[in-house]
Design brief:
Blueprint: E1 3-7, E2 10-12, E3 18-25, E4 33-39, E5 46-52, E6 57-59, E7 67-71, E8 75-80, E9 89-97, E10 99-102, E11 106-110
Parallel strand pairs: 2-11
Antiparallel strand pairs: 1-3, 3-8, 4-5, 4-9, 5-6, 7-8, 9-10, 9-11
Length: 112
């Protein structure tokens, strides 16, 4: 059974940085795409960044130049720099291989 566990969230001041991690276990296959989503209160879950098995990346316009996605077979990272209050949300990792596998989510709060 595939399990994804996020870590690294918390409270940070505007302009600060956080590094999210997502650790996967319980699988023996390769994932086609790994991604980070976020959901703010009252909003739909949105795609923040994604990376393919070949290393191609995608970033939402709102985070381009500030966030960086990376990872290997078992882990996924999201380096978040120059954070803004509007980045406040619950962040989820998602691994895709046939079906989608989601983490439980982790809170990121950007506030002074």
């Amino acid at each position: 059974q595939v399990q994804l566990v996020e870590s690294g969230g918390g409270l940070v001041q505007p302009g600060g940085s956080l590094r999210l991690s997502c650790a996967a276990s319980g699988f023996s296959f390769s994932f086609n795409v790994k991604a980070w989503y976020r959901q703010a209160p009252g909003n739909q879950r949105e795609l923040v960044a994604a990376i393919t098995g070949g290393g191609s990346t995608y970033y939402d316009d709102s985070v381009k130049g500030r966030f960086a996605i990376s990872g290997d077979k078992n882990t996924l990272f999201l380096q978040m720099n120059r954070l803004k209050p509007e980045d406040t949300a619950v962040y989820y990792c998602k691994f895709t291989a046939g079906g989608d596998y989601w983490g439980q989510g982790i809170q990121v709060t950007v506030s002074s």
